[in-house]
Design brief:
36% of the residues lie in helices and 26% in strands. It has 255 residues and is α/β, with parallel strands linked by helices.
Length: 255
Amino acid sequence: MSAPVLEITNLHKRFGDLEVLKGIDLTMHKGDVVSLIGSSGSGKTTLLRCVNLLEQYEDGVVSISGEQIGYTIKNGKRILLPEKQIARQRAMTGMAFQHFNLFPHMTAIRNVMLGLVKTRGMDKDQAHSTAEQWLQRVGMHERRNHFPGQLSGGQQQRVAIARAIAMNPQLMLFDEVTSALDPELVNEVLSVVRDLANDGMTMLLVTHEMQFAHDVSSKIIFMQDGTIGEEGPPEQLFRHPKSERLAEFLKSSKF
């Protein structure tokens, strides 16, 4: 059997005296779609950011396709890898954020092309072709020459998703990609993510969209005070929560 796409073992993360992640274990295989749900401050986004080392962590192991991310062990000590190596490892994942982080002075297609040229080393013609393909895929090809300021929030988020996926990551991370959008724009972004899930992309999502999480996920993880409070198939967690905390959370989420 091939190595899991993502394997997290005993992950701990602190901000000063505050322990935000308290020993997380998670394994994902190719094609898995795992949604992290839970109250604000439960550790969902921090977990996501540790996976691609936007946050360094104090203890535990994060591996992508069998390769430990961020650290190595020398003489029994845990040592941070050189930035060049970390940058290569980060390219194994793609990430779409709450706020789209597009370069405002670049058109949609130039935003998508940038990483392909700079990180993947593609020539401009190949990068242009790949960018066009992915903008078409997310329904943004007709607006490829527009600048971010000329696009709605939902359109900017679709460009940001195209930019991340064009890099051909092994794992796609989504951090509340609809939370900064007006309600009428949410569905256009969720439909793109749903299509990607149907295509078999391996994805780890943080979301407050409970119906979407139920429909798209192969597994749901309920984060609770920096731990995994409950996990399992969507139907089990949403219809038959074992803990009072999860039941209360789902009720407050109007699921």
